[in-house]
Amino acid sequence: MKQSTLTQFLAIKNKNKSDSSSDSESVVKINSSPSSSELSDDEETSESSSTDNQEARKRKSSLKPNKQSTNQKKPKISNMPRKIKNRNKFCDNWKMDPELGGFISKSDMNSQHAHCNLCKKDIRGSIYNVKRHVKSIFHKQNVQAMKCTVAVDQFVQKPEVQKKQLFDDSVKDAELRLAGLVAKEDISNRKTDSLLQVMKSCFPTDAVCQALASSRTKTTGIIKNVLATEEKVQLANWLRNNKFAIIVDESTDKSWTKVLVIIAKYVDANYNVREVFLGLLDVHDASSAGQKNLIMKCLSDLGIPIQNLMGIGFDNASVNTGSVKGLGVLLKEEVPNLFILGCTSHSLALCTTYATQKLPEGL
Ligand SMILES: [Zn+2]
User: Fold this and answer.
1) Mean pLDDT of 216-234
2) How many domains does the chain have?
3) I need a surface site. Which of 8, 10, 12, 328 has the fewest CB within 10 A?
4) Are residues 246 and 331 in the same domain?
5) Is 153 inside a domain boundary?
């Protein structure tokens, strides 16, 4: 009886483990055996016990394929999404993380470590350690230094850029020379376009000549804003440190505006006497005192000391050559040794006039 109960227990246990129909049939068979064993004698019970043992062995043997079947199902279980993330391993998403600034990459020394390309330092651990490094003072100092550092390739221009830069400089130089020629030779600005067309037709293969775009307006702008400005700066630098004289004259233009022209006369570094335009000033006070103030203001605006003025030339108008309140006398108050020279042509004309009056009337 004990063996029959044992077989029953095994059968019930197998029933719970397996779902196959064969198992259920075996269970039915096992369940039927105790009922027969209960009704049989001891011999029968012994025989039944032997048969039960055989069935139990069969049952055990039948359990083996069941285990295999369960093992075959296991892979389905293993395919379930059961991934254990290694949080200490470098992840490619860190490269694109804006919070990390794009400085993080995989370490060459250890594929599981991160590497800061800015600090040249490996970072071991999870994303938490990487973020902690990015927020560190050392990393922030390197970021600040990188922003203030100019890339080396910016100091070296590419050959194409250098070639284009050279070509542009050549064109600018040619335009400046052309504008200088127009200003020096007193060529009318209206003839600049015609001059440029002739030049382009004469040099059709010259790229610089073909690229010239010095129209009348552009040439005038170059003369006024580039050449005149630079010439005035150089003139002022020379007059600040050397003696010079000025020639002044008053005139009235088409708009009935009185202007005072100032020409500087000096000896340059090559001992050549030069007369250079210094200024054209509007005259609101035509008296000698007003003209003196204009001259003083013109020199002071350019930073030229009045003590460098050696002489002044003007026409023989009384407002200039007056012996009491003339312009020359007023300027002598600032420069006592100032040399005053009237207009030689006017003086010669006066001399000849008075000389002819002394001649006999019969001549
Ligand atoms: Zn760093």
Assistant:
1) 91
2) 4
3) 12
4) yes
5) no
Domain, as residue range, for 48: 2-75
| Each residue's pLDDT tens digit, 12-53 | 655 555 544 444 444 444 444 444 444 344 444 444 455 556
Same domain, 264 and 331: yes
Give the distance (Å) from ligand 1 centre to CA of residue 133.
6
Cα 15 from chain centre: 80
Q: Looking at residues 223-236, what average pLDDT do you find?
A: 91
Per-residue CA distances from 151 to 60, 74, 102, 155 (Å): 79, 59, 18, 8
Nearest by Cα to 297 from 258, 334, 255, 338: 334
* Assigned domain for 168 exists: yes
* Nearest-angstrom CA–CA distance, 261 and 248: 6
Q: How far is the CA of 156 from the centre of ligand 1 (A)?
A: 28
pTM comes to 0.50
Look at residue 64 in the predicted model and tell me its pLDDT: 54
The predicted structure's pLDDT at residue 262: 93
Q: Are residues 350 and 246 in the same domain?
A: yes
Residues 295 and 321 in one domain: yes
Q: How far is the CA of 95 from the centre of ligand 1 (A)?
A: 13
